[in-house]
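Course assignment 3, question 2. Fill in each field.
Student: A.L.
Task: Predict the tertiary structure for the chain below.
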Amino acid sequence: MRVSSIQLEMKDGQVKEQMIDHALAMMEKARGSDLILLPEIWNIGFFAYDRYVAESEAIDGPTATALAAKAKDLGCYVFSGSFVESRDGKHYNTSLLFDREGKRIGEYRKIHLFSYQSREPEILTAGRDIAVVPTEFGPFGLSTCYDLRFPELYRAMVDRGAEFFLVTSGWPFPRLAHWLIFNQARAVENSAFLFSCNACGVQSGTRFLGHSQIVDPWGIVVAGSGHDPAIVTADVDPSLVARTRREFPALRDRVL
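Answer field:
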């Protein structure tokens, strides 16, 4: 299973249509992957709070439509990163999973909205539903950025069968140590793969820290990036999850 995490650069004043075209071009460079991931609210940038409502989209809007078509063209699964979704008069930080045919097979609305020096909770509505999606490789659990600080969500996904965690993110400096720890911890404590895709660049005076990662069920970082734009690619063996859980049965030994 070849995984590619596309670490896109965020800037002030970025034009959504141009960002979509840029993301599609970067995805083309990852042709041959079985799974491609994108960052959080990459089409306008996480810190573009004043644009959230005006540039929100329906679940089948231009961002999702473009990614669905590209998933089919590439013949790979695509974790869309997230975008601001407009739905029933509310707005959500929404991520989608497309299969090899470009069919939407999963959707996740960010449950934990970021309240620290952020307007996200003022503008957006928190999701309520955990998303674990069956695939040919095993069940994918979907999550977004700040969710990483809440281990109970990942354990709940494991209880629903998750073997892979997909994380889209707009995580900024200076909390690099936290990001690195949580990427490895959520993987190792659940004996699961974790694939993260973070943004990089500077927006509204805040620098995204990048460092997208591919982490195996032992907590080993198989591949990762720095703070510049990058495509992080690695080949992983999906059967390692089952082997790890047999060899080191911490999940089986749970008491609570």
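Instructor remarks: The chain has one domain: 2-247. The helical segments are 16-29, 62-74, 120-123, 151-159, 176-188, 240-247.
Grade: pending
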